[in-house]
Amino acid sequence: MTDFNRSALPDTVRSNGATPNPWWANAVVYQIYPRSFQDSNGDGIGDLKGITSRLDYLADLGVDVLWLSPVYRSPQDDNGYDISDYQDIDPLFGTLEDMDELLAEAHRRGLKIVMDLVVNHTSDEHDWFQASRDKDDPHADWYWWRPAKPGHEPGTPGAEPNRWGSYFGGSAWQYDPKRGEYYLHQFSKKQPDLNWENPEVRKAVYRMMNWWMDRGIDGFRMDVITLISKYLDGRGRLPGEIGSELSEGEMGEEGYTDASPFCSDGPRLDEFLAEMRREVFEGREGYMNVGEAPGITPERNEFITDPKNGELDMLFLFDHVGIDQEGSKWNTVPFEVKNLRARLVDQQEAVRNAGWASLFFCNHDQPRVVSRWGDDSDRESRELGAKAFGMLLHMHRGTPYIYEGEELGMTNAHFTKLEQYRDLEAINAYRQRVEEAKCQSPESMMAALALIGRDNSRTPMQWDASRYAGFTAPDAATEPWIGVNPNHVEINAVEEFDDPDSVYTFYKKLIAMRHNMPIIAVGDFSPMDAGNDDVIAFQRHLGDATIMVICNLSSKKTTISESLRINDNKQQVLLSNYSTDHAFKSMHDGVLGPWEAITIQL
């Protein structure tokens, strides 16, 4: 069990309802996208040895946990989220011995390692799936196999078991000539869904998870874990199958029905998660588990993360990162601060009495927040906005997640051509929406990709101003797998590391405050009316202590209500992205500067 260089939360305060408080209640997690973090061998792809070489940087930042996106053996159809062998490392990233070295070196620095785990689906190259293609094999029922629709030629359009569409475009069904049936894939056709209704599937998954836990990892982040239970009718048929009692819903603009209402938060989800807890985690110490949770409401988050229900420690909810999308993900609408405020309040209120919140704006599936909702057109706006969004997130109750480069204020890639993108989702969505369904113009689609496409967060980590940003050697024979953002010349770790006014230094302060001030980690949350739609304000309370957080999320000066103004100097400014003097004047006058964010002790 790793020892931290920080104080534990006293058990006189409540975190998620557990006693004693879990170690992660005042922790900060840092997500690493391995292929984009650090290339140690010049092949243009980041690797485990590269991560190990940067552990001192992460320890200096002050984070507690490193979450690694998948490094298992994989055909890399979806950048490793299509796993072909759960108990081996893909040669792109190194070896099992490299993983052991990373674990040892991280633990030596007081850092825990959480691995990304994908068990809603596997790769179609996994041995389990290959065996299931034989109807007489013991693995035959490990995936969702269905015959062609009666009266249709198998493998022809319209013969699919129902009309569900995939998240990555096209049908959610793929015909397999060897078996003579279709298999379900909610994502890529190379990512067939596992059939969690089969107890042998679950046993195999738990054996694999225990193998990793016994090897020394500190837990799992579980990809789309809330999709593992599907809705079935009384005879085991999926919605829309011939004879099913369940309707699959209306046809969408891309020519398919939506599977998500029938595959998200299904009827056996709680049962499966509780079983996983008993079979893998019960009796262990020092771990954490977090689930990616499409389709989960804040109210359901409270139940699943309530310790008395024995499921997961925390979940990633998505209601707040969908506020600039309407209908389709690719139909973007203007960002409105009031919508973000409402979603964050909902998430905080839901765990007021029990359970826990995960705090994030950025990850490998989301764009850079400073470009998405901020203003990256000039250095001052970019840095102020990066700090404002950082303060907003980290001053909420829950566990903050920092995505690699977020602590530097890294921006979107600003790609202008489709060929610059590498993401399967982006390329498939363009083909599906622009070329096939013709429901979106090329110009609109390219604008949406530039704003919210996943590759925006996947460009190489910006370590320095050299040719490839220090991600790989400037004279490397192979270019990085995806283009380096040209602004790495001014936005990079070397430039910011020793700068007291940098975004990096600001993030160090945010992390230290969470470690050292229980009110930030676990204090009660009270939203406040700022009297302005561009401002989010709230208070945190613990015992007799109160702090107030106020953030102007706009590029213009903004007035605030009289009730938020400070008329004396008894209060202490704990953190400001301007100067302390500027913060006092702003609070006294009731006028916040562009992107101004202040935390003040009342």
CATH architecture of the largest domain: Alpha-Beta Barrel
Percent strand:
15-25%
Helix content: 25-40%
Name of the CATH class of the largest domain:
Alpha Beta
Number of domains: 3
Question: CATH topology of the largest domain, what is it called?
Answer: TIM Barrel
| Global morphology | globular
What structural class do the secondary elements suggest?
alpha/beta
**Can you give the mean pLDDT?**
96
CATH superfamily of the largest domain: Glycosidases
| Estimated radius of gyration | 24 Å
Keywords: Glycosidase, Hydrolase
Family: Belongs to the glycosyl hydrolase 13 family.
Organism: Bifidobacterium pullorum subsp. gallinarum
Domain Glycosyl hydrolase family 13 catalytic: 31-458
